[in-house]
Amino acid sequence: MNKTCFLSILICLLLVVSACGQGEEPEADQQTGGAQPPDTDMLNEEEYEIRESEAGTLTILKEETELDITETSGEMRLTVNAVQIADFDINEEFADFFNGLSEATVFTFHIDAENVSEEDLGFYPNQSTITTNTGQQISSNLLLSDDVGGEFFGNVKKIGEVFFLADRIDEEITSIRWIIDGPHDEDYETVGERMDFSIDL
User: Fold this and answer.
1) Do residues 89 and 51 make contact, with C-beta atoms less than 8 angstroms apart?
2) Which of 21, 88, 100, 108 could link 82 by a cystine bridge, Cβ 3.0 to 4.6 Å?
3) Residue 168 carries which DSSP code?
4) Of 106, 112, 113, 103, which Cα lies nearest the Cα of 164?
5) In a 10 Å sphere around its CB, with 0-12 CB exposed, 13-18 middle and 19+ buried, how is residue 58 labelled?
6) Which residues fall within 8 angstroms of residue 90, CB to CB, at 6 or more apart?
7) Strand, helix or coil at 35?
8) Is the Cβ–Cβ distance between 69 and 79 less than 8 Å?
9) What span, in angstroms and rounded, lies between the C-alpha atoms of 56 and 91?
10) Whole-Å CA distances, 81 to 23, 73, 144, 199
11) How far, rounded to the nearest angstrom, does the alpha carbon of residue 191 sit from its chain's CA centroid?
12) What is the pLDDT of residues 10-46, one digit of tens each?
């Protein structure tokens, strides 16, 4: 894939989630002088936040930015700080980069993954699976996801986003189940249970 084209695709996705989990305060309303906290529930259609780029148009459907969900498996700790669900209308010239899709739904998770031991471990949240209350099973998109998996040396933390891309889902998504294989040691022996947890939206 041409690097310039790939960066253009990421503009639409990454800029949207760059503030996830940062806890930024909303700017004061210029007319009232007061700050209104964002409503993380399902928005009315006319209130959806929309971002556009050369790759297409991203419409944010749901966003939770203060989740602080922590799961452990062996000596690996995973914290989900934020989740975003968005519809992605992909411009025709970029469809081949997304398996020919013209309409997609994008799930983005902002996470911390940490090895709390002195031992080197392998752990792969960026090679995992989610299911939804609407019946979809979706594998993570390794190409779009940050480097938040792989080898973790002792006492190392990785922070970033994991992306899941699916055919457009028209039904309302109210819960997500995330399944991640347990960590392994340097001999590829499993040293923790599979992570399997749900996030209600």
Assistant:
1) no
2) 21
3) -
4) 106
5) buried
6) 55, 56, 98, 101, 102, 103, 104
7) coil
8) yes
9) 5
10) 10, 18, 18, 11
11) 25
12) 545 544 454 454 544 444 444 444 444 444 444 444 5
Encode pLDDT of 49-67 as tens digits. Answer: 888 888 889 999 999 999 9
Q: Is 110 helix (H, G, I), strand (E, B) or coil?
A: strand
Token look-up 């503030």 returns 19
Nearest-angstrom CA–CA distance, 159 and 78: 10
Amino acid at 181: D
Sign of CA pseudo-dihedral 37, 68, 19, 173: negative
Can you name the residues that pair with 100 across neighbouring β-strands? none
CA distance 153 to 119: 7
Q: What is the pTM of this model?
A: 0.80
Question: Cα dist. 101→6, 47, 86 in Å?
Answer: 16, 25, 15
Per-residue tokens: 173:
């998504």
